[in-house]
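To: structure subgroup
Subject: Chain for Friday's discussion

All,

I'm putting the inputs and outputs inline so they're searchable in the archive.
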Amino acid sequence: MVVGDLEQFKVFTKQREYVGIASREEVHKKGYWHETFHFWLLAEIDGEKYLYFQLRSEDKKDFPGLLDITAAGHLLHNENIEDGIREVKEEIGLDIAIEELNYLGVFPYEKVLEGFIDKEHAHVFLLKRMIPFQEFTFQQEEVSGVYLVPLEGFKNLLFKDHLQTVLIEGIVENKEGKMEASKWKVNKTNFVPHNDDFYRDVLNAIINKIS
């Protein structure tokens, strides 16, 4: 495998057998399995559970302006799984230690787009904590906001009624770089279209952990 750019990833088989190292470009061009770090933040407010979703920047090449996992990113070839915690600080500005998280396991994820094949062994972590919006800061080229999404409402969007809407609240960074409160009525199309099976497996793992 040719290693061409600075971002190099470990490459695996679908069964998670180590194969070698390849560049980000090659990994997504040829559809090699690689490792990622996924961080989900969950809060319980007045007896109702909410997931924090980041709002992807409009400058992002993939899925701009859509709601996504609280924080996530690729693991480089010289990183351990725990090193992925850096994504939380980089993307949403929270100082959280890996020891504070619950490890939910590895979840396979596949997405095929034109000219882009994403096959991930996603290491998924959960933190249950209410964090005020004012504690977030955003990596501007990556994230432009964060929203609280009712867990049950999100499940209904995915698996019961794709046409229904849910009102969510959060903060967004405006063009002047200032934070402002936001309310948004969303449906399934406002979320990054991860595979339904992936969402279902992760949500089930989260629910089992907090039950």
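Points worth raising on Friday:
Helices lie at 24-30, 86-92, 151-159, 196-210.
The longest strand covers residues 33-45.

D.
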